[in-house]
Each structure stands twice: as C-alpha cells, then as structure tokens.
Write a structure and sequence with these properties.
138 residues; 3 helices; Rossmann fold; four-stranded parallel sheet; alpha/beta
Length: 138
Amino acid sequence: MVYVAKITESRGAPKERAIEDAINHAVTEWNVDIINVSSGFYEPREQIRQAIQCAHASDIMFASGHNDGTNKPLAFPASAGNVIAVGATNNLGKQSSFSPLSENKAYFFTAFVERIFPLDKETSGTSFAAPIAAGSRI
C-alpha cells in the first residue's frame, strides 16, 4: 500500500510543521515501513529531527539531497545520520550536474532521473529520485 501526504500548497518551500506532521502521521496512523521526503531545508529543523527519531525505530526513511549540485551540502533531512540521502544520475550512471555529492555519508543512494518523462513532460531532480529509491525497497 502506498500513502501520500501533501506537505505544501504550491511549488514553494514546505512548512516545517507539515513535514513533521506527515512523518508522525505515517508512523502512528498508517504504520508504514518506508517514508520518502522529497523536500528539504539547508539547515536542520529540530521538530523534524525529533519526528525522524521516532520514525527511525521501525521505519526506513529516504530524502532527496537537493538540486544545487556540489555547490551546497546535503539538505536536511537527507543530511540526518539515520536517513538515506538520495542523489540523481543520468542514463550512463554518472552523477547529474544538479545532484549533491555523498559527502562520505554512510547511507547515500542514487537513481536514474535525469530527463525522465513521468507526466508527458520532461523533468529531473532528486525529488523524483527519492521515491524511486524508496520504491526499490518495497
């Protein structure tokens, strides 16, 4: 079974509370095994970190790294120690220019998502790579 929690009303940045609530709901109400967060922040957020800690006891969490290439460190929650960070590759298995480096993170996964066509339009990004990585665990 796949569940989806909406964390933003538009293409803008999600609210910290929405991500925290979505993680908590996934654990307490849906009893999920895998959580994907296709969003992030450049600074850690304590409320989200606490929700991740609660979820980590029984769940695997994937999170997109970011789409700023090697210019910035991994976004949070992908940078959290108990979260599998996800980057992107092209069709040759090479790191996409917008994908972050693993930064020696113990849990870093990549998925082919450069120039894919999921909804009749070309798209790319680690936000698409994270659910592909999470789906590979099902």
